[in-house]
Amino acid sequence: MEIADIFVVNKADREGADGLVTSIRQMLDMNPKPGPWRPPIVKTVATHNEGIEELFSAIEEHRGFLVSTGSLAARRKERIRAEIIRLWSAGFQHYSITD
């Protein structure tokens, strides 16, 4: 499983949701080199507007963390670099070496 910045368990009112939260927590605990950000696990029931404020708070907290560590700027720069490479590569897909 890819490590997310925030884990959201929607439909948390359904059977198995607590088990999923426990499994995610155990997976996070197994990380031999935990970083400075531990992804929170937020339970929501979107159809009843439950957990939405907690999710919004977790998103704001994570953004603050990214800004304070300089990671937000680095992620943006990497995203832009990857997009430029993708666009540049896509422009050359229609040409062959023999053209």
Secondary-structure blueprint:
Layout: E1 7-9, H1 17-29, E2 41-43, H2 52-69, H3 71-92
- Measured by DSSP, the beta-strand proportion falls in 5-15%
How many angstroms separate the termini? Answer: 43 Å
- How can the largest sheet be summarized? 2 strands, parallel
Rg estimate, integer Å = 19 Å
The helical percent reads: 40-55%
Kindly state the mean pLDDT as a whole number?
Answer: 92
Helix-strand makeup class: mainly alpha
Summed up, the helix count is 3
Order of adjacent strands in the largest pleated sheet: 1-2
- Shape assignment: elongated
Catalogue the unreliable spans.
Answer: none
SSE pattern, N- to C-terminal: EHEHH
Number of strands: 2
Written description of the protein model:
- It is built from 3 helices and 2 strands.
- Helices cover 54% and strands 6% of the residues.
- The model has no long low-confidence stretch (mean pLDDT 92).
- 2% of the residues are buried.
- The chain is elongated.
- With 99 residues, the protein is mainly alpha-helical.
- The chain has a two-stranded parallel sheet with strand order 1-2.
